[in-house]
Amino acid sequence: MVTRTAKTALSLLVALGVMLIASVAFAQDGGAASNEFDMKKWIGLACGLGIAIAAFGGALGQGRTASSALDGIARNPGASGKIFTPMILGLALIESLVIYSLIISILLMGKI
């Protein structure tokens, strides 16, 4: 069991590490051409990772939603009408978050 003091010390060490890394990153200098190439490289990586993480999270969320709904219907078949409609609405909302990620990635790819 982690004590409150250990959590506080860990939080302070993480904050210190972030500040040290940020100061090194801001101290770097580069030419205009390399910055443009670096920006395009990071945008491409962000688009790919964004879609991958969104699709993975959406698939997990939809799986858990369907599993819970089917479990509820199996326990009480009479409530299937009351469970089915909110399940479909929940699945649509989960999928909309993945579509938002796709739209953001497409917009970012337009900047390359």
3D structure, described in words:
- This protein is an all-alpha fold.
- It folds into two domains: 30 residues; 78 residues, F1F0 ATP synthase subunit C (F1FO ATP Synthase).
- The protein is flat, with a radius of gyration of 22 Å.
- The mean pLDDT is 83.
Topology:
Blueprint: H1 4-27, H2 32-75, H3 80-109
Helix pairs in contact: 2-3
At a glance:
The protein is 88% helix and 0% strand. The protein is mainly α and 112 residues long.
Number of helices: 3
Q: Please report which band the strand proportion falls in: under 5%, 5-15%, 15-25%, 25-35%, 35-45% or over 45%.
A: under 5%
Class of the largest domain, according to the CATH hierarchy? Mainly Alpha
> What is the name of the CATH superfamily of the largest domain?
F1F0 ATP synthase subunit C
Distance between the termini: 48 Å
- Contiguous uncertain segments of 5+ residues: none
| Number of individual domains | 2
* Number of DSSP E strands: 0
Which bin fits the share of residues in helices? over 70%
At CATH level 3, the topology of the largest domain is F1FO ATP Synthase
Major beta sheet summary: none
Q: Given the helix and strand composition, which structural class is it?
A: mainly alpha
H/E order of the elements?
HHH
The appropriate CATH architecture of the largest domain is: Up-down Bundle
Q: What Rg, in angstroms, do the CA atoms define? A: 22 Å
Mean pLDDT: 83
Tell the overall outline: flat
